[in-house]
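Quick one:
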Amino acid sequence: MWVGLIPKCGGALSMKSISTREMLRLRGEFEQILLPHQIKRLNELYVQYAGVKAFALPVVRNKLLLSKDQKQFIDNQLTKMRLDKRRIKLSSFDPFGELSPGGPPRPTDEKAVEKKVLLSILTQLRKDQLRTFKEMCGQPFDFAKKDNTRRSVFSP
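Output:
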């Protein structure tokens, strides 16, 4: 939940390019500009964008009312995912840092790791938690439904 993720009174939010102070300023601006249903949709899109990493966000954990064991399981799975993705990236280089004959890692390899972790996490959630997470995700963003009436000057 993007707007919900921005802490109202400080708090630790780790975004590499934006400071907490800047996030607070943006949160205030969004709340002034956007209508409630737009803020809700922005939050849904953020959860979709975060993917499996959304389970590491405090607002998601709190809303799902995760048990201590569930939180520990999720943390372990996310750590394992990070290590597996790193291993995939490193496996494409030889000991001298040159690209190996197999070429760069395929994005599908990393996506497969994320999907496996997501499925393992979802199996640990209760039905009410699954329902809440589905509500937090909202409708999937569908580029096919995007209005194509506004075309770029570079479009044919």
